[in-house]
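Reviewers of the previous submission asked for a worked example of the structure-prediction workflow described in the proposal, so we include one complete record here. The input consisted solely of the amino acid sequence. No template or homolog information was supplied to the procedure at any stage.
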Amino acid sequence: MKDKNYHEDFDDNNFEFDHVFNDKMKNTVKKAKIKSFFRTILISIVTVLLLGLAVSYVSGKRVEKNSQQLTTEIMNRHMALGANTFTGTFWTKNNTFSGEAEYTTFKYVNGIRVFTGTHGYTYNVMGYTGRRYSSIAGGGIDFTRMNKEELFLRPKFNDLEQRLMEFYYPFVDYKTFYKNDLSKVAEIGDNKYIEMGISFDKLYTMDEINKLLPRGMNLTWYWVDVLNKQEKENVDFKILKQQGKNGMVENREEFPSICYEDRAYGFHAINEYGEKLEDPEEYFKSALQKADMKDIYQQLAGKDGIIDNKDIKIQGVVVTGDARSLIKLKGLPFIKASSLGIVTDKY
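From that input alone, the workflow returned the following structure tokens.
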């Protein structure tokens, strides 16, 4: 009996011990699971924060790099595209994943700096995304009593209502549609400075132009021939076939294109301080590469891939001065057309 009672007591004590041990183990495991859960959450939060900081840092650096690249590209584009136009001050605002920029442009008209507009664009980690704002022309009424000739000769203006110079391609016969704004110079008066776009009768070298222009002429910009054969055909006069009201096929004459100053390729003869440049064509060559204008560069370079001075053909220029100086250009046989640009006060 004693042994039996002893074993029963032992079994009871052992059961109590196992029960207490199991409860403690459950509590310990439970606490371990809770700690592990919160540790996992904490690690996840820290990982997400560190990853977010890393992504923000890398993204911000990428946006900053794109901002600098686009600023350089736009500055160089204006050194190769846009007659007599310089870039002024740039403002940039970069965020984590995107940015925006704004810059001004100006011209020198016989030493007088003239503001010509403010431009904006946006970008992100991938690069350029578009213009920040754009202008919408017209008043919503698509009607005019002007005929095709009058529409063709109608002057165009920028956002500040400044007249855009027009350039006439030497390989196109514009018949009676050539502009001759040199004839208006005497009417402007001597208290103004004038910007004038000059179109030539054929292609010339820089040296030839510098010899042809009257001594003392303030030449500020050269217009360069950059079109290939197909592009030249596209801007010339065309006769198009179309069906008339009576069902008969009729010929429709399409007027040739002229080149407005904002679409003209060329290079400055002066720098952004109004000083004459030595070897200005070298800046043009460099700008075409830095502005990623590879097609234009290759078109000028030809098979050897290098632009020599003989590859640069001049088809027009921009000159500035007062009426007394510009009137010397009247009647010169190599000038095919002349187009007024900005006219500003001397003082």
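Residues 48 and 188 are 69 Å apart (CA to CA). We consider this example representative of the routine output the project will generate in years two and three.
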